[in-house]
Amino acid sequence: MSLTRKSAAPKRSLASRSPAVAVKTMDRRTFLKRSGVTLGAGAFAAQLPFSMIGKAQAEAIPGQGKIEVKRTVCTHCSVGCAVDAVVQNGVWVGQEPVFDSPINLGSHCAKGAAVRDHGITHDSRRLKYPMKLVNGKYQRISWDEALDGITAKMMAIRKESGPDAAYFVGSSKHGNEQAFLLRKFVSLWGTNNCDHQARICHSTTVAGVANTWGYGAMTNSFNDEHNSKALLFLGSNAAEAHPVSMLHTLHAKEHGAKIIVVDPRFTRTAAKADYFYRIRSGTDIPFIYGMLHHIFANGWEDREYIAQRVYGMDKARDEAKKWTPQAVKDVTGMAEEEVRTCAEIMAKNRPSTIIWAMGQTQHTNGNAVVRASCILQLALGNVGVSGGGTNIYRGHDNVQGATDVGPNADSLPAYYGLTPAAWQHWARVWNIDYDWLKGRYASSALMEKSGIPVSRWFDAVIEDNSHIDQPSNVRATFYWGHAPNSQTRGLEMKPAMDKLDLLVVIDPFPSATAAMAAMPKDPDAKYTPNPDREVYLLPAATQFETEGSCTASNRSLQWRERVIEPLFDSRSDQAIMYAFAQKWGFADQLLGRKGGRQNIRLVKVKNYEEPDLEDVLRNEINRGAWTIGYTGQTPERLQAHMRNMHLFDVKTLRAPGGRDAKTGYDLTGDYFGLPWPCYGTPELKHPGTPNLYDTSKHVMDGGGNFRANFGVERDGVSLLAADGSHSKGSDITTGYPQFDSVLLKKLGWWNELTASEKSAAEGKTWATDLSGGIIRVVMKNHGCSPFGNARARAVVWNFPDPIPVHREALYSPRPDLVAKYPTHDDVKVFWRLPTLFKSIQQKNVADKIAEKFPLILTSGRIVEYEGGGDESRSNPWLAELEQEAYVEINPKAAADRGIRNGEYVWMRTPTGARLKFKAQITPKVGADTVFVPYSFGGWWQGVDLLPYYPEGSAPFVRGDAINTGTTYGYDRVTMMQETKTTLCQIERA
User: Fold this and answer.
1) Of 180, 178, 348, 336, nearest in space to 257 by CA
2) Which neighbouring-strand residues pair with 630?
3) 3-class secondary structure for 127-163?
4) What is the rounded CA–CA span in Å between residue 901 and residue 973?
């Protein structure tokens, strides 16, 4: 097989370049075989040095039929690695990393190298056809039977209990258009009870960062790390969770950047660092304040930057004073010299960046942790600077995009919220009558109230209805691309599944949900399962069997081509949505069909119709998502970027020139993937924003400033940027609020709108003007940011802790610190549910839980598996690499318990769970900590659930899920689950 690419190039064989190197590469064939890369020229090339790699094009081989190359994106983490899929006669026969991609540079991790084997063969572990649970066994049924059965149950539930009795768990695996369509679909049903994986991975990031300076996303990019002089990994193990991102980190190191890792565990990332320091899990805030203590004491802060662009830093300074070196050591376990070294390296090697993932976010005070990280970077003047920023690594391939435009419980797409104005805006975009939409909800109050988060959906089933802030308990749950073993409190989720009236799993793989639903209840459990419950499994197509865009961590969008038609009897997610919409009575509204206009066409795929995803992006997302700049990334622009990856600079992500051969589109000046915000209409041709809040660039060149999203003054202090602080070329050289029609008139800019723009913009803001006229005039004519020019907030007065403060975990290993650093008070109604904090923490202290369970339990990713793991553990190549669930135990802790390496152990947790793992004895963890990867599942407290999976669909590798035993605990702002700091005990099996 020859190397493939999209653009033309001279044909040269690999053999003609260097036989010696090719032979040398053969020494790695075992790795290649286990990684799932075909042992052809493509496999060789993936291992060759860049100087040896040339480009070739796919050709038809005589007698073997047509060969096509389809460009797509890896479906695992959010780095955004591009894949060239080789398709012969409609069959996917090979794959290669895209060498022209400025993101993955021709590289893949083990998971990316194996994506072709994710369920495309006849003997795969895919869910191949609709099924229904009958007498404890899954039986095959037709699509019509499934759709009719589910519809009958849903209509009965709606009539008896209202639309809020249904819950929809969406997916961060959905593309942007699918995620957007699902939020619309759920709204048409009439509930805000929807959510997806972002709630349990980065909701605290989104809330904390957005409330600090405007947008809740990665400020810079993987590529921009090349410009960093110091990188602090705090809460990220990128080498395993985002392996290909390390290409850029290590390039920075080659250029002289210092790499620091602060983590409870010596990770693979730590192995590449210049400095590694161990920290007690759950104490990031004291560590950050310890750094700030040294920064302020030594005058290392950027005083001019703070004076011009930051509000409330004095309050952060006051908090930092409390965290003396001795106080920091007592709480974190880190010595003064270690903390000071981190502070000094970050301060004296600017621009410096901080990198985090779920190590910061999955805590009961996760919102405060990420805000503390933001304050650190603001103190150093590192935000809005190339090489600086907060580089936040998202988990799934489209968790960023699904958060931006998908099924969030607290907002319509693009973070518009749930106010009447937000609903009216999207009703206009969707071409739906607003009053009709209101009528779909049980009440206006419920229409404008945040729904139940996915982290607590099961509590909405089993909690006493008098404690729930909605008319009915949840009776029907749709798992639409979500794994239950990725959620905490698994022991309590099982009863909820058994008590439902309806459970629907829509997924390419049956997931652990199918087995959990089918397994009988524990005989000792004190609840009665619902005898009338119905469980359906619907086979969804993978992202390789559809098309659409996805958004990487750095906010760049990429367009996936459909590689192959949906396999077996699967259907795309958008086709399933449309089929339900037809049955449920809102098909016209889903398509935006009213008054002679239709937003979304139908296209024929196999024997059914589905909404056209290009239309979803072009006619709805691009027309409505002004707040975050999802308006300039048309399908045509994104597809041109994918065909011309070679034009984009690896360091800046910018195309210095070039035209798309297919369409003639001029890519000059575009940043790869048009990272949002890509403002205005497509005709404005905004290039995208590579680094947020960068005042050194013109706004039409990707520059900007902090968002004026929180008013203009607070307690008599201006929240707008100081005089002289503005983006390059701005006509307004001081701070200013967000733009609307009134401000445009006051400034005398109104008449720069066309007549049609005036009509559309009257009475509107920049975010609700569907013409884009306000944005065009403000940005193109006057060089201003449409969202204003404000100061970032060190003080977030609308949060329970306006300044981040340390609070001990609910299951703290240090009960002696609880009185000094207590958690929050209990909350009677929070996201529609009662939520406990202090009562649990105080009970744990009284019951001496830390003595009974003396080991800190934390969890995280490994490189071989991802998410709940059902897909990757069903891949034969990946399954070979990591065959058993395990727990990492320090040699001292193991010796104290008589445990030897490779033996089975039982882990007990305060929930009463008893989990079985293989012991991996290693000094990577401290003597007080154990670590378990969270992507295992398929066992239940030591018992294999193989009999309860649909026949032939169980993953190759099964094991106990750590989240079966994790404990109660949620963030006070977002309801993020606590997974990083709880307690356990371990004994020999």
Assistant:
1) 348
2) 678
3) CCCCEEEECCEEEECCHHHHHHHHHHHHHHHHHHHCH
4) 41
**Single-letter amino acid code for the residue at 64:** Q
Please state, in angstroms and rounded to a whole number, the distance separating the CA atoms of residues 963 and 960.
9
Q: Round to whole Å and give the CA distance between 872 and 124.
A: 12
As a whole number, mean pLDDT of residues 452-467 equals 98
Predicted local confidence at residue 58, as pLDDT: 55
Nearest alpha carbon to residue 906 among 897, 916, 898, 896: 916
Q: How far apart (Å, rounded) are the C-alpha atoms in residues 862 and 806?
A: 29
What is residue 757's three-state secondary structure?
helix
**CB within 8 A of 898, min separation 6: which ones?**
988
- Could you tell me the CA-to-CA distances from 945 to 446, 519, 615, 951, 965 in Å, in that order? 39, 7, 42, 12, 16
**Would you call 708 helix, strand, or coil by DSSP?**
coil
DSSP state of 524: T
Cα Rg, the chain, nearest whole Å: 27
Amino acid identity for residue 153 in this structure: K
Name, in order, each residue with C-beta under 8 angstroms of 885's C-beta and a sequence gap of 6 or more: 916, 917, 918, 932, 933, 936, 939, 959, 960
Residue 511, pLDDT score: 87
Q: Other C-beta atoms within 10 Å of 920: how many?
A: 18
Residues composing the chain:
989
The answer, yes or no, to whether the previous bond of 407 is cis (omega within 30 of 0) is: no
Q: How confident is the model at residue 65 (pLDDT cuts 50, 70, 90)?
A: confident
Residue with tokens 């095959």: 140
User: Tell me: the pLDDT tens digits for 91-105?
Assistant: 999 999 999 999 999
- Phi then psi for 438, rounded to 5 degrees? -60, -40
| pLDDT score of 10 more than 80 | no
What confidence tier does 13 reach under pLDDT thresholds 50, 70, 90? very low
Whether 830 contacts 355, CB under 8 Å: no
pLDDT confidence of residue 60: 56
User: Do residues 21 and 52 touch, judged by C-beta distance below 8 A?
Assistant: yes
- Rounded to the nearest angstrom, the gap between the alpha carbon of residue 752 and the centroid of all alpha carbons in its chain is 40
Q: What is the pLDDT of residue 35?
A: 36
- pLDDT category at 119 given cuts 50, 70, 90 is confident
- For residue 910, report the phi and psi dihedrals to the nearest 5 degrees: -60, -15
**Over 647-696, what HEC string results?**
HCCCCCCECCCCECCCCCCECCCCECCCCCCECCCHHHCCCCCCCCCCCC
Q: What pLDDT, on a 0 to 100 scale, did the predictor assign at position 59? A: 56
Distance of CA 286 to the CA centre of its chain: 26
Does the pLDDT of residue 24 top 90, yes or no?
no
Task: Provide mean pLDDT across the span 36-47.
Answer: 37
pLDDT band at 55 (very low <50, low <70, confident <90, very high): very low
Region 251-280 average pLDDT: 98
User: What secondary structure, in 3-state letters, does 434-462 show?
Assistant: HHHHHHHCCCHHHHCCCCCCHHHCCHHHH
User: Do 319 and 806 contact (CB within 8 A), yes or no?
Assistant: no
In this structure, is the dihedral angle defined by the CA atoms of residues 228, 231, 236 and 241, taken in order, positive or negative? positive
Do the Cβ atoms of 456 and 171 come closer than 8 Å? no
One-letter amino acid at 380 equals: L
Distance CA(626)–CA(613), nearest Å, equals 19
Which two tokens mark 858? 């934390």
End-to-end CA distance of the chain: 50
> 235 and 216 in contact (C-beta within 8 Å)?
no
**Separation between Cα atoms, residue 626 and residue 628, nearest integer Å:** 6
- All residues at 6 or more sequence positions from 469 whose CB lies less than 8 Å from its CB, including other chains: 449, 829, 832, 833
